[in-house]
Amino acid sequence: MSGPLFAVFIDIVRQIPAGKVATYGQVARLAGMPRCARTVGYAMAACRDASVPCHRVVDRFGGTKSCFDTHAPGTQRALLEAEGVVFTPEGRADLKRCQWQP
User: Fold this and answer.
1) What's the CATH code of the domain at 27?
2) Rounded CA separation 91/63 (Å)
3) What residue numbers bound the domain in which 84 lies?
4) Which positions are annotated as active-site residues?
């Protein structure tokens, strides 16, 4: 799957501001496809457009994914921290403080 479906997810992810994160499920719900969180993950992993802030999408617990660690382990976390995203002691993005509320 790709094309128009992925484009819907990409358009939503482009709206996430620096310093905020969204979950895969949140992006799916915003797209009107609440049971497609996994498909959002596929779209983010397949995206090669550097202008899309795919690193701002995390799992439902605020966890980062290795597919975004393009340069070294921890790349996604480093990118998020550089934007001001706060992490919990468990190493997850603090969704209470940093989850995007459109």
Assistant:
1) 1.10.10.10
2) 7
3) 4-95
4) 54
